[in-house]
Sequence to fold (674 residues):
Amino acid sequence: MIGAVRLIYEGAFNLFEGPMRWLQRSLGTQRMVWVFLLPNLLIFGLFTYLPILLNAWYAGTSGDRILLGDRPWVGAANFATLLDCESYLNPNSCRRDLFWRAVHNTGWFVVLQVGFMVLLSLIAALILNRNIPLKGFFRAVFFYPVLLSPVVVALIWKWILQRNGVLNAGLDWAGMGTVNWLLDPNWAFFWIVFVSIWANMGFYVLILLAGLQAIPSDVYEAAEMDGTPAWRRLFRITLPLLTPTLLVVMVLSLIRAVQAFDEIYVLTGGGPGSATLLLIQYIYDVGFATRPRQFGLAAAASLMMAGVLMVLTLAQLAATRKRGEDG
Amino acid sequence: MFRWIIARRGRERFDLTDWMAFGFLGFGVVLMLGPVLWLVLSSFKTEAALQEYPPRLLPLAPQFQDVAGFDAPLQRFAVTGGEHAGRELVQIRRVGLNAQMIDPADPDTVLNVNIADREPVRAVEIAQENYTTVFTRFNFARYFWNSTFITVVATVLTVLFNSMAAFALAKYRFTGRTVVFVLIIATLMVPPTVTLVPLFLVVSQMGLINSPWAVIWPAIATPTGVFLLRQYMLTIPDDLLDAARMDNASEWRVYWKIVLPLSAPALAVLVIFSVMWRWNEFLWPLIVLNRSEVFTLQLALNSFQGELQTSWANLLAMTVLTLLPITLVFAFLQRFITQGIAQSGVK
Fold:
């Protein structure tokens, strides 16, 4: 096995060495930089930067044709359609009520999911940072669901939550009666928040744990010597020193929560009705799943979302830099 | 009040705070692993056992028996009360609160038994056919291959292209270096989810719709990968590279024979990320892969759960097979993966 890998590694080297030598001779050593950068830059150009430009064009045109030449220019009409609301607080008063329903749902989802997930991850990380037996095992268990694919996660929970599933059987046994979890709007929303916390929490536990372990232990020893009570150590030492990491965790989870789609789409499909419809699914539905495809509306919605994400990412970069400086 | 969360355990005491901590962790373990174990256990149950309510923990299946004169096999019950207590009968039909039952040895005498007085006869039955039909009827091997192809090819190209760019950014001084670096890192701000429509145009104009390359190409340049590798390569001393150049090594040789082997730990982390990203990817393949021959595992699972609302047996087996590879990788590389993620802080 290792021998085969080595053989392939050597083979690949020999394969590229001739052309690369020739390039270096004809371009000069200094220009080789661009040879190394070229594949990456080409892909970023073609699949990231070109789409960003095109997205603006799509947002300003209408029709169900994908080719830009076939699409009539309508200016800001798509934005006007999406933003046409009597009251932004009431999705039913909007022309595109589903878009605003998705905006509201996403807002609630982000607040609840990020809030509870960061809190639970913090508690788990603090406990795992104690000097307890089986630490590695517990850490691995919390992290395991992070690796599962969203589709698998959704199916695992669908199987538990189904009408004749194990959760209902348990409640039945305890004499509490059964609930049709995914067909009740409020419960369905609860479960998308719950499942996405379940699936992602371990990742943030890991990052917080790394942050905790970076806190020098002599600070605690000094505090202990002074007889500082435990809760005071938590609020006066641990949390202040952990703030940069907490900030990173919050911003990262915010960015990901705004883009939540996979698990939720498979678990509820946005239903019942539009109770769990989130923004990305709205864009997918409007632009790809339903005919006629309304690429213009989808692009306009994406553009607004991109604005929010850009702000969040800049915040993340700032937070990461701060963490780097502090630690 | 918060002591149980943070207190450090004394040498010999195992106090209340330790119990609370373990309570939290124990509950966490049940909540995190329980659902997965339940899925695995369920996947070995026969369709009949899956339909049962309330469900049983172990794959115990109700038993049926062929009886002369009846078209379908009849379910076996042990009678626990009433006048026929102690006998084992099969049920012909249920009428209200009573069941009409017969003794297979004496099929002509119909006996009436109250349904509260009987218990289904069960036996452990491991339904391997759940797994075998996944391959024979559902073309599982095809989807597995599609997913594997995309994952392997994309990962090889990701590591190659990202390490080349990282090498250039870490080991050369040239005009425009900062601009290039910022241009690459800035793509963090534009995840593919916000450029779905134009990305679809680009990929469809390249004629890639319904080809695995539609998933591979847009994915193989990653800002996280470049950043991760560049940070690592910065720690490799330049003297090593210069010494090789003195010996007339080409830039390609310097990169391939010196920098790459020395960056192995960072490359391994990127490999793990890339495998995870590609194997689990869902939204983009959902948009560009529409024909079932090119479906990835995730797409196939999704489309089956739409079609096979009632056939949980196959769906559960398929789900287990999909989570198996990642679980195996994790079991062997657990420590490595968790450390890699904690250090780089990306996912």
